[in-house]
Amino acid sequence: MNETAPITMIQSDGRATHPGYMPGWANDFETEALPGALPQGMNSPQKCDYGLYGEQLSGTAFTANPPERTWCYRIRPSVKHSARYTMLELPYWKSAPNVIEDVTSLGQYRWDPMPHSETPLTWLTGMRTMTTAGDVNTQVGMASHLYLVTESMKDAYFYSADSELLVVPQEGRLRFATELGIIDIEPKEIAIIPRGLVYRVEVLEGPARGFVCENYGQKFELPGRGPIGANCLANPRDFKAPVAAYEDREVPSTLTIKWCGQFHETRIGQSPLDVVAWHGNYAPYKYDLRNYCPVGAVLFDHPDPSIFTVLTAPSGQPGTANIDFVLFRERWMVAENTFRPPWYHKNIMSELMGNIYGEYDAKPQGFVPGGMSLHNMMLPHGPDREAFEKASNANLGPDKLDNTMSFMFETRFPQHLTEFAGKEAPLQDDYIDCWETLEKKFDGTPGKK
Ligand SMILES: [Fe+2]
After folding, report:
1. Does 302 participate in catalysis according to the annotation?
2. pTM of the model
3. 317 exposed, middle or buried (CB, 10 Å; 0-12, 13-18, 19+)?
4. Is 8 exposed, middle or buried (0-12, 13-18, 19+ CB in 10 A)?
């Protein structure tokens, strides 16, 4: 099927199945799954066509500039997808503040890939929080998660009132069937699911493993480009929002809500994914990381890693993000007389990294696909001995870093390890030793290199 075809296929059981996408970042999109379902020239007609209900989903306060909101035309208003709530325990999904007394977050940490378990896990039960930062109640900070998913959610739906979710698959393929349409993602792609949007996650190819950045704060946006100008990095046209897709499906179902760090379940009699048409600029997206056009040094030295920012979530303090999502992918290294890997450093920002595939240049060993590392606020780190020696003695011709894709969730707030990250996840006890064999080379001799 044409990727952008505005068509929704409805299965005999009433489920929408066909993904289709509209290109552009933060466009004011409009899409309808049935002809004429979208009112023209106004938002709130006295009666909507097909007997639909009009409803606005607001992602910002009304007076924000620009406001982010989407008008939905749906089979039932959302209040019909909401009954009494009961608390639900999801013990592995944590929210900030979550400071564990006997778990030390001060340190350089690295984890092997978390193996899949024999227990069937869904998007909700398979979420494993690694770190939390800030405070979910004041809507600042973030959490980083690992997901291990083997089972589709069946007649079960979810939304987070707390957060926007940035999903980074590492293994397997997932389908996000959302109120506003269907997004399929696989490794090398990401999805952004906005706060408040209801969805169900299905496993298209499993088991699925990946990473999630849960953003409590202001939404992700494209970074300012400064002197780079209008092109390269993540180009707006490569972000894709789904076309409308609805379900007319009346079966006993559950809707789980994450609200101020707690989970609540409500029982309803139908699928809440019943938006037949919508227009607006508050929508989920997917993005293919292979479209990210990296920019770097073309003569000597290299810029700060901020040059590789895909998306940034502002914190209110200009230039100091609540979260930066940074991508380290294939690129040519051409700088002359330069130590090319990342230099040794110590930052105010806290850096959570994950490896999607391949080998990361500062850590040829130990940081493997599916693995993660954490370098917390003001803790020194940098290349290991092998990377340092190799880069210091390399013959510096043009060299392509190939078969590599890692990312960083970087936040201005310290990241606290969860009990799972400190005690259950496959933490590498010897990570700190990767710098142990770095030699003292200085002996006072002028001109010695
Ligand atoms: Fe770093």
Report:
1. yes
2. 0.95
3. exposed
4. buried
